[in-house]
Protein: Integrase SAM-like N-terminal domain-containing protein
Amino acid sequence: MSVELFRQRLSRAQLHPNDLAWMPQWFDEYARLQQDDGEPLKVETSRVLAFLRSLRDRGVPAWQRLQAARAVEWYQALVLRNDEVDFVHFKQKLGELAELEKRARVAVENGGGMPGEGLPGLIDPNEPAAVRKMRARMRVLHHPKSTEQAYVGWLVRFIRHLDDENVDKYGEPEIGQFLTELAVVGEVTAGTQNQALAALLFFFGVTGRLDGTSNGRFSCPHQFEVCPQIRSSDLKPRGRGNGL
Structure:
């Protein structure tokens, strides 16, 4: 079998003991996801992408998804002996997301907030450009710090959902998919989904991707009694006394 052959050849590779321990485990996960009866197991871009997304949907952090990608890459090299799938893009994106998650985790451990929450007006230059842009606009409009933290949190989750920090190029279809995932996989309440939608529409209003004349409406799963009907034109500047 492909899994056993991979284990045998991996054991003879000059790798760190930790790599030899976790690579077979991640490849086992990849193999279980495949529906092929034939051998050896195939490695294709669409299969790798589906595998990594399945891990993401289960809440596996980016640094472990990077491990999983490397495991499949080594299987391709040792067993299939080809380079049909270029893993450079996968590893680069997952590395960026892993660093983003690490910075957020360290910031929470050190001060209880997201990066950039330490001093008024201070925006971390190491944050993704989209996050910096949202923070800057919210501070110009004098939104409460709690609102900024909540909105940035939703934007970061949206970035993880896309596996892409360059969120400016996306729009209503991707927002709709994200909201559906929150409802179906995350089982969030209608109020939570409303907040996520408001945060993303605020961001895309800042970037100009959703203009004020667009309805910007999104369908919601049937289990919600109240479906968010927030439009980008509804997101107008508010003072401190108005909460969200």
Notes: Residues 111-120, 211-244 have pLDDT under 50 and may be disordered. The radius of gyration is 21 Å. Residues 88-111 form the longest helix (24 residues).
